[in-house]
Amino acid sequence: MGLIQIENMEFYAFHGHYREEQIVGNKFLVDLSIDSDMSVPAASDNLKDAINYQRAYKLVKEEMEKKSKLLENIAKRILDTIYDNFDGIREVTVKVSKMNPPMGGGRIEKVSVTLSR
Length: 117
What we know:
Blueprint: E1 2-13, H1 19-24, E2 26-36, H2 39-44, H3 53-64, H4 71-85, E3 89-99, E4 110-116
Antiparallel strand pairs: 1-2, 2-3, 3-4
Helix pairs in contact: 3-4
């Protein structure tokens, strides 16, 4: 078994419950972990046998470009697209963080949602 981790992917996107968030946008960070059997690509040294993490990044980027109101929705879409595009996955975990979320009365570095399947 093995784990591919793509960490701190940074995107400027227009997600949020409030209309202003969807107009002004914000910085988001995404962490993606993909658990799979890596024995074949480890032996073959061939990308066609592996989960291509560049392709995974592009899929995450495409989902981040679609507007959503909730981080939960973004995380679910990322899980769905990863499972739809790769075979041999045992588990995927995605963490989506909104930096400096609008909070009345205080400064917060980030708020995050993590989903696994």
